[in-house]
Amino acid sequence: MKSEPNLFSITHLATDRTSYWSGVRNYQARNFMRDQMQVGELFFFYHSRIEPIGIAGIGEIVRTGYPDDTAWDPNDEHYDPKSSPDHPIWYRVDIRFVRKCPEIISLKRLKSIPALKGMQVVQKGMRLSIQPVTPAEWNHVMNLPEWRK
DNA sequence: GCCAACGTTGGC
DNA sequence: GCCAACGTTGGC
Predict the structure, then answer these.
(1) Chain B nucleotides reached by a protein CB under 7 Å
(2) What are phi and psi of A42, to 5 degrees?
(3) Which nucleotides of strand C lie within 7 A of protein CB?
(4) Domains observed in chain A
C-alpha cells in the first residue's frame, strides 16, 4: 500500500499505533479494500514520490472495508460529490502498526532482485496505490538483510 | 520540475 | 460505445 510519507508515513503509523487507509479514489485500489482484505492480513507500507522511495515497514488490517466518509466531506481534499452515505462509492480499511523496516528497501533495490522481477511494484508504469503481493514475493522481501540492520 | 503512463470524462 | 482530451500519479 503506497503513501506519500509527507502526508502519511510508517512513522506516523508507528506513533499512532492504529489508523485507517482513507482517501483512495481509484476503483481497482478500492476493490482490494472492499472485497479482498481480511482482518489479520499484513501489508507492506510503501513510501512513494519522496526519497528514499520503497518499502518502509509493515502494517496489519484490523477492520475490513467500510465506507470512506471523507468522500462526502466537502472540505476534504478527496471529496467526491458522487458519493454519499446512502450511496458510498469509496471504501477504507483500518490498520495497525506492526513493524518499521530499519532501512528502507528502495525501489531500485527491489528492481535489482531477479526473484522479484514479476512483482507489481517494479513494473514500468505501475502506479496503482494498492497492489497484491504473492506469498513468494512476500517471503523473499522478508528475508532481505534490511530487516535485520 | 518534467513527463510517460495511466484512469476518467464527456462529446459525438 | 468509441476515443480525444484532460487530470493525476509517481519515478526520475
Answers:
(1) 4-8
(2) -100, 155
(3) 9-12
(4) 2-135 (3.10.590.10)
Task: Identify the three-state secondary structure at position A47.
Answer: strand
Cβ within 7 Å of strand C: which of A 73-102? none
With 0-12 / 13-18 / 19 or more C-beta atoms within 10 angstroms meaning exposed / middle / buried, residue A117 is exposed
Residue type, A125: G
Given a cut of 90, is residue A53 above it in pLDDT? yes
pLDDT value for A90: 95
pLDDT of residue A75: 85
Task: Point out the nucleotide closest to A128 (alpha carbon to C1′).
Answer: C9
Question: Quick check: A3 CB within 7 A of strand C?
Answer: no
Q: Which three cell numbers stand for residue A42?
A: 499484513
Q: What is the mean pLDDT of residues A58-71?
A: 96
Evaluate if residue A101 carries a pLDDT over 90: yes
